[in-house]
Specification:
Layout lengths: L4 E7 L4 E8 L1 H8 L5 H18 L6 E8 L4 E9 L3 E8 L8 H4 L5 E8 L6 E6 L5 H12 L4 E7 L4 E8 L12 H9 L4 H6 L2 H9 L4 E3 L3 E2 L1 E2 L5 H11 L1 H11 L2 E4 L6 E4 L1 H17 L5
């Protein structure tokens, strides 16, 4: 079975494209740093699958960020994925929600934001929609209908060890080949028979054969996904150097240490007085050696 992967497929006889996402090691890494309550972990797992599926529907060179903010028990949910499949994300909560309906989890004022940043564009693309529906899957479907005018059906399943996602999307009229008026209804009706257990446990080939063995299906090679945060000690070193030795030393004097936590993976970088002295001594030495003026 392919793990930590996204597989695209095309149901040629229905004019429908789709994707299947399975996250194992990635999901374990996402949970390793924070002890999420069950319902918070469930919506975070769905968000990881959603971000992977969303990024697979477009071509871009950069990063896509899925973010949900609201006044509910979970006030922030954010997952980011790069075009080469590296993912990171977290949730912030005040109380454990009683169930996983968006209005309960995030509050009735919640908004979902999809941001795509690329090196080619000076300004990022950003789509913001109210978080509507009885599930995160319905909210994603609403997003595609409003922003892309594309019929989309999404399914998620989350367990302790795995996250899975399944997406179907009607091809734009310009890309349709079969022109089967019943194709979309047939494809989604069959997908509705999927159980969470099947989505979690079955490999892509088995799932597609079970659902669409009477249709013409083309399955493409999978792309790999992984949990990877770009935070590092080197980045936090640079952040402290930019603050200046006097300000950082004042923090050390007041608090005894400097602690910098990554917003995405919760890695914590700590500096005591010895670390700070060595950091700025090394920075000055590096500057002196570079030939910069004293």
């Amino acid at each position: 079975m392919q793990t930590d992967s996204r597989s695209r497929f095309l149901i040629e006889s229905c004019d429908v494209r789709g994707q299947v996402v399975h996250l194992d090691h990635c999901w374990a890494e996402a949970k390793a740093r924070i002890d999420y309550p069950p319902n918070v972990g469930s919506v975070l797992g769905e968000a990881f699958a959603a971000a992977a599926l969303l990024s697979g529907t477009i071509k871009f060179d950069g990063k896509l960020t899925l973010q949900v903010r609201g006044s509910g028990d979970v006030h922030l949910l954010v997952v980011q994925i790069t075009s080469d499949g590296n993912m990171r994300g977290l949730a912030r909560w005040k109380n454990e929600p009683v169930d996983t309906r968006p209005a309960v989890v995030f509050g009735t004022d919640a908004r979902m934001t999809i941001t795509i940043e690329t090196d080619q564009a000076a300004e990022p693309y950003q789509g913001i929609v109210p978080l509507e529906g009885e599930s995160l899957a319905e909210a994603i479907q609403h997003y595609f209908l409003v922003s892309e005018q594309l019929q989309t059906q999404v399914y998620f399943a989350v367990s302790d060890n795995r996250v899975a996602g399944f997406l179907l999307q009607a091809l734009p009229t310009s890309e349709q080949v079969a022109s089967d008026e019943d194709g979309w209804g047939r494809a989604t009706a069959l997908a509705d028979t999927l159980t969470d257990k099947e989505l979690i446990n079955e490999d892509v080939q088995t799932l597609l054969h079970r659902l669409y063995h009477e249709e013409r299906v083309r399955l493409y090679d999978p792309s790999r996904l992984a949990f990877r945060c770009n935070c590092s000690r080197q980045r936090t070193d640079g952040m402290l150097i930019s603050l200046g030795e006097t300000e950082v030393s004042d923090i050390i004097e007041e608090l005894g240490e400097v602690s910098i936590a990554c917003e995405f993976c919760d890695a914590n970088y700590r500096y005591d007085a010895v670390d700070v002295t060595a950091l700025f001594k090394g920075f000055v030495g590096s500057a002196d050696n570079s030939g910069a003026p004293h």
